[in-house]
Amino acid sequence: MAERVEVLLSEEEVDSRIRKLGEQISKDYAGKNVHLICILKGASFFMCELAKRITVPVSIDFMSLSSYGSDTQSSGEVKIKKDLEESLENKYVIVVEDIVDTGRTLKYLKELLKDRGAADVKLCALLDKPERRVVDIEADYIGFSIPDEFVVGYGLDYAQRYRNLPYIGAVKFD
Ligand code: 5GP
After folding, report:
1. For the chain, what is the HEC assignment?
2. Active-site residue, 136 included
3. What is the pLDDT of residues 124-172, one digit of tens each?
4. For the chain, what is the mean pLDDT?
5. Distance between CA atoms of 174 and 171, rounded to whole angstroms?
6. Which pLDDT belongs to residue 101?
7. Residue 151: CB within 6 Å of ligand 1?
8. pTM of the model
9. What per-residue confidence (pLDDT) applies to 66?
10. How far is the CA of 101 from the centre of ligand 1 (A)?
């Protein structure tokens, strides 16, 4: 089936929003260090841009979790595929995610990372689909709330394609 991608959020909109998130985080964490945890692969583009806009000291680590695969429906199960390399002991952690959908991934992560001794765990997502939530969790920092559409670009894929689009697009199947 052929699909096409329509621009939902332009490159300029996304970049300027990330700049604002960086400013907000820099203010909120004044006098502290932040430890960013990037959820691979989707959040990698977002985390790089965000980290560049944060002015307090930043360290980074990466984690990979099970996700959609090549389907557009969530399996409902979260598994660790690649774990963190650094200890979280006494760190001010911000989990950086591409999108909050059902909320299962972030809920799982927040509990896991708190148990590992982080001083604090906050969640930052570029996109949020509030209509799709099935568990009770909200990100502390959100780039954009979007309607219930399957989106790609800025790190997000459809069957491993489109991650390199510099904007957020909605996939249309027609
Ligand atoms: P949740 O656990 O909140 O249901 O799912 C979060 C994960 O599902 C995201 O990190 C992302 O990998 C995937 N996901 C949810 N919605 C979309 C979407 O619209 N497009 C893409 N490419 N992935 C999505």
Report:
1. CCEEEEEEECHHHHHHHHHHHHHHHHHHCCCCCEEEEEEECCCHHHHHHHHHCCCCCEEEEEEEECCCCCCCCCCCCCCEEECCCCCCCCCEEEEEEEEECCCHHHHHHHHHHHHCCCCEEEEEEEEECHHHCCCCCCCCEEEEECCCCCEEECCECECCECCCCCCEEEEEEC
2. no
3. 999 999 999 999 999 999 999 999 999 999 999 999 999 999 999 999 9
4. 93
5. 10
6. 93
7. yes
8. 0.93
9. 81
10. 6
- CB-ligand 1 contact for 157 (6 Å cutoff): yes
- pLDDT bin (cut points 50, 70, 90) of residue 70 is very low
CA of 76 to the centre of ligand 1 (A): 11
**Closest ligand 1 atom number to CA of residue 156:** 22
- Over the range 132-166, which residues count as b (16 or more CB within 10 Å of their CB) and which as e? ebeeebebebbbbebeeebbbbbbbbbeeebbebe
48 CA → ligand 1 middle, Å: 19
Supply 57's token pair. 């000291």
Out of 61, 98, 101, 136, pick the active-site residue.
101
